[in-house]
Amino acid sequence: MTYTKRFDGRKAFDEIRPISAKAGVIPRAHGSAVFTIGKTVAYAAVYGPRELHPKFLQNPKTGILRCHYNMMPFSGSGERVKPGPSRRSREISLVTEKALQPVVDLSQFPNAVVDVFIEFPQTDAGSRCAGICAASIALADAGIPMTDLVAAVSVGIVDDKVLVDLNYDEEAYEEGPVADIPVAILPSTGEFSLLQMDGEISKENLLKALKMGQKAVAQINSVQKQALKEKYAGQEADVADSNTSGGEYHDE
Amino acid sequence: MMNESLKQHLIECLKHNVRHDGRKLDEFRPITVEYNISRSAEGSARVKVGNTEVLAGIKLTVEKPYPDTPDHGSLMVGVELLPLSSPAFESGPPSIDAIEIARVVDRGIREAKAIDTKKLCITYGEKIWTVCIDICTINDDGNLLDAAGLASLAALQDACFPYYDGTQLDYKKKTDVKLPVLKLPLQVTVYKIGDKLLVDPLSEEEFVYDARLTVTTTPDGTICALQKGGEKQLSLQEIEQMITMGTEKGHELRKYLKDAGN
Amino acid sequence: MSDVTSVLKVQSRDVVVPGEVLAVGMDYLPSFGTYRSRETIRAARLGLVTVEGKVLKLIPLSGAYLPKRGDMIIAKVIDILMSGWRVDTNSPYSAVLQLKDASSGYIEKGADLTKYFALGDYVSAIITNVTSQKLVDVSMREPGARKIIGGRIIEVSTNKVPRIIGKQGSMVSLIKEATGCKITVGQNGLVWLEGHPLMENLAVETIRKIEKEGHISGMTDKIKAFLDSRLKETKHFDEEQ
């Protein structure tokens, strides 16, 4: 048996699973979002900028970004996930932070911290990427200065097929080589801010896969944009508020 | 958020029977219950009470029974007050508040014998099913306690066994065999602020309450768990009123669950 | 010469998101909340676009309050210091209220400071200084500054504060008159109000409505009509009691 088509019925190797997003789902947070890709669901909440304790962690030049990746105990595809940080979740928190760092500008908030909490009620591969997508929306929702909405997806190889957005069954394919490469990309420039890999792949296929990722994130980016615009639709009034000179109003 | 003068003002408003969001003292905020919100779990539910939102998920595992109950399955309840859901919650081991909620929810389900634990026995003295209920908070706007209770029941109702052939558990294959839920013990917490009793507190009401009593009752009105909290004492008369209120409201909440007839 | 290639990609009052292209070409100029990357001008945060001539800037729709000199804020006492109080400003930066700025009277050194302001007390105060490292001073020797006693405090989005206040305070005056409540709106998004319990609830409901409302055209009239109809209901309710 060779791997000839997507296990979940997708038509093409460069096709991502169905995605959706919503901003502002957690009223207590300063910014929040839920991002769904296939059966993976990520919540993100942003708190801050807020005061950072302990004080020795403070940076007088800029605010700092802290990400916290966590799976709910019932969100794994197998056994119950023990609550609390694991080596895995701490590493993912770290690479999530680094994936978002290049776009986020916290220089206006010296000594402060922006906390991003990412949680999953259900997962089916690609959770760190889904978490990054949700976190980007939540940071924008919180009004954090940022130059872009980072989008992330996994790319890789199953058997001899280069493909995008592996689901769990594809990651677990055993009859041939598999490479799982989560990437995060700045949509405006195509640059990479997350790059990890498990498995084996040739240099040629790697570059092919990364290019496929660049294409896929455009689609993710438009869903992220849409989620934010939906939340803030109908906010025209504020312009008139600060523009005392006035002007025309658009009533829809 | 609250200091003594703000607290006095809130109590003053309650004397006029006016709550900060305009509700009656014995009125819950709008409640929604959504089933099967996580396919990774064997059963799951989302409960919203006003802006408060919690998720409950169930994982089933095969384990060795406790020596004193060789033919009974077991139950475990955990609560995660996620820092995602409130600026007041921090990462780290469960806080005492999380532990209390978990223990109160656990007690209600256990003591009412809501689950037929005998049916969770696979092989006498050898293998039983353990039911793990985990409750995760998404947004805290007061009354996580009752939201957690309601979500746990809904998740139990939603749960089906995964495929088990006697040696190997396959979580990917779910059967359509439901968890043996016998009845729904509903948990309602009644708060005392000044000389008023109320249910479903807002965050600010949770800050200032004098005492609270969680009352868990079965459909026939039997009380199956109690938990008194808060810094002040309660009179017998107050306890009676709180139990009456908690029981009535429990019946009302039961209607939000499917097959509420049982 | 670049006229031909410069293109505006958005309209004034559009909601834009980080990274979104606002204009292409060298004719347009990036201002607050936007940045240029080669030929394109993009959004550097979420906001509403304004186009003034060739200048593109954004108006924030969300985000934390940052202390600004001259702002009247509502702050909470969180620490008693040697020579004053530390107050929380509902922002990432707490502020210091020095003894000399706390009262028009003389406070003796070594006096029990909690007699003036205890932990948990709220005050309305004016921000008098903000350093580059965000050290903040507040003063209560200013008109409008006082200790807050009783009533209730709600939090609103700081970006909606101008709307709640209205032009020359017209909106907040309208609510005060209709409900008979005393209201203080802090620039830091905390609002204090006090009045008859039912009227307080109505005032809060009105403020929430203003926060949510999208359009400003006829906003004052809309809010007036809302208050009038709610007041009639309440009257009715009182008679029934």
Q: Could you walk me through the main structural features you see in this protein, from its secondary elements to its overall organization?
A:
The complex is a heterotrimer of chains A (252), B (262) and C (241). In chain A, 27% of the residues lie in helices and 28% in strands. Chain A has 252 residues and is α+β, with helices and mostly antiparallel strands. In chain A, α2 runs parallel beside α4 (203-232). The longest helix of chain A is centred in the last third of the chain and has 30 residues, at 203-232. Chain B has a single domain (11-254), classed as Ribosomal Protein S5, domain 2 (2-Layer Sandwich). In chain B, 26% of the residues lie in helices and 34% in strands. Chain B has helices at residues 4-15, 96-111, 144-158, 203-208, 236-254; strands spanning 31-35, 43-49, 52-63, 74-80, 121-123, 127-139, 160-164, 169-178, 186-193, 196-199, 211-217, 223-229. In chain B, the strands form three sheets. In chain B, strands 1, 2, 3, 4, 5 and 6 form a six-stranded mixed β-sheet that branches. The N and C termini of chain B lie far apart (42 Å). The model of chain B has no long low-confidence stretch (mean pLDDT 95). Chain C folds into three domains: 2-60, OB fold (Dihydrolipoamide Acetyltransferase, E2P); 72-148, Beta Barrel (OB fold (Dihydrolipoamide Acetyltransferase, E2P)); 152-240, K Homology domain, type 1 (Ribosomal Protein S8, Chain: A, domain 1), CATH 3.30.1370. Helix content of chain C is 24%, strand content 32%. Chain C has helices at 99-102, 161-165, 170-179, 197-212, 219-240; strands spanning 7-8, 15-16, 21-24, 29-30, 34-37, 40-43, 47-52, 55-60, 72-81, 84-88, 95-98, 122-130, 136-139, 146-148, 152-155, 182-185, 190-194. In chain C, the strands form four sheets. Chain C has a five-stranded mixed β-barrel with strand order 9-10-11-13-12. In chain C, α3 (170-179) packs parallel to α5 and α4 (197-212) packs antiparallel against α5. The longest helix of chain C has 22 residues, at 219-240. Chain C starts with 6 loop residues before the first strand and ends with a helix.
